[in-house]
Design brief:
This protein is mainly alpha-helical. Helix content is 68%, strand content 0%. The longest helix is centred in the N-terminal third of the chain and has 24 residues.
Amino acid sequence: MTQHGASARQKQAALEALGYVCEDSSPEHLEQDQVNAVLTVVVQGMNQVELSAEVRLAAVKALYITLDFAERNFANDMERNYIVKVICDTAVSKEVEIRQAAFECVVAIASAYEESVALQAIEFWSIVCDEEIQLLEEYEGSYDANSNVNFHFIEKALPSLVPMLLETLLKQEEDQEQDDNAWNISMSGGTCFGLMARAAGDAIVPLVMPFIESNITKLDCSIVHEEAMLAIGILVDAVGPDFVKYMPELFKYLEAGLQNHEKYQVCSIYVGVVGDLCRTLEDKVLPFCDGIMTILLKDLSNSMLNRSVKPPPFSCFGDIALAIGENFEKYLPYVMSMLQGAAEVLVVLDQSDEDMVDYVFCFPCFGSNLGMPSLILIRYRDETVTKAGVAVLGDLADTLGPISKDLFKSHLFHVEFFRECLDSDEVRETASWAQGMINQAMVA
């Protein structure tokens, strides 16, 4: 490689031989001076001034093999940044095979080295995802129309990238104190994973489901459940209706998680995922609603379940109602029974128990559905919670339409309640909309 006047064929052969030697060696077999010499030769072969594409390809492949030897080099900011820059420059080469080899180097770096290096590598892939998403949007998602400008690097790199990014989701230790404002590898990996799902679409799902199924069964580790659920949420948002075909398999895990009363944090996470699924899949979630509603109602009636888990299912009822519309009618009697229980707690509430007050008022405005005096709602709730409760009433009327007529006619609390809400600048607009929805339902 360093010999003056060496032919392209000689350089290629030298780089390939170097790769073979390193492949059969271990990092401890080379002194640091030897590692430096190897990296110098390889990086030189990758340089854009090298006219032979075959030489540059051999150099990139050799670098991929020698990355395991470069730990001390990556610990040096200047050397690390230079190597990453050379790889990124190579990743925009006009030759597709060279670009693909460079991408594989980025994946290897993100998997092998410290967080600061991995963050750079993940950011690189996020940029690639952004570019491909823009192309998909420009060509309205047609893979055929833009095949000449979109080389689908993300889809081709999925088998290597997906396992690496999923592992970054687990980097956040449950007991590790983290600065909430610090951008870490778990956050970066989650963001990149979301972008990758949007860029690759349905092709990413089969690669992610084994991760979800493996980690979702680890009932002794709630952080793992959280990250598995995060992966589900990202997929649902990215591929949308296409995710429906995976629901039968996923549902058995949701069913187990929603009934995991001993690990109430896990149960709460699953409730949130149900809401995500309903908001994204809409009426396509209907075949699973009987099972979901049965479990949620059992959760609410279970005196052993930690009380912090009980408010979210009520919000989840709203998500389900909005998703399936008039099909929610058959669940109303059971939901109303649970709301009656919440209202009864509200009546006898010890206002000196601040924790209990916070707990009960996580049920936004549900007590009012049963005729609870609006004075109680206004007295003990801030406007943000009141606004959420008003929105729930509006959603109920909007979703159920004429079906909700009898409910609102028999519980006229909303008349006085909305009158008081209209005096609030914060709530007025939402209250006006909700009152309009109720009026439409009552005259329908």
